[in-house]
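Everyone, describe these structure tokens:
***
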Amino acid sequence: MNREHSFRTASARLRRRVDCKGAPVHSEQLAAHLRVARYGAFHLTDAVRPGFDLKIVPRQGYRRDVYREADIDLEVPLLAAAVSREHLFDVFLDLLQPLGPLVDVVLETSHHSRGESHRDLLREQIDLPVLCSHLVDFEDLLLNDGCTGLAVISSAEAVEVQFDEHKLLVVYAHDLAPFEAILAGLGVPRDNGLPLITEDEHFHASDDRHLAAFDELCVHLGIDR
């Protein structure tokens, strides 16, 4: 069940709407918890925080898994990566390079759903360098808005790279080797026991500034909302 907590702190950076999965806590405790942006060497973006009881402590790494849809007998290998804030956007851009020169992009928004669902907005057939140029202009939105995500899909083969609302990087591909090589080269280790922030209660953050930036990104990409 999602619950919404509104709170005030002396930090303007934390004056925003926060959606939480889990039990309610006192506003002072919540504000203090949300101000913690670093766990060991791992820096979080402003978009998301782990649950109050810290059953999941963020750390850098990636793990492999398999996406399955039993009703259509579909299995696709995937990797999911958690990357510290200072490297996250650069790693994301590097993971896009194996997709080829022409891609489709799906913007995901949960700004109006209180975290219970999201809308997918599709732009087909965009040159990858053009897309990357637009994304660089909206780096702050993509890193720090807990209601914005996107998926970039190859036009040539069944390969997809997601930069989701939790600021996890997820790759779906039958051949994950090129993506694993990129992660290894950038210092993101394979960690088969890596816990993901999505696997327990957690907090998302957004504000009106990010909603306005999301609308502007849609315009830049030629997406009709």
About this structure: The longest strand covers residues 61-69. The chain is about 25% helix and 30% strand. Confidence is low (pLDDT under 50) at residues 1-22.
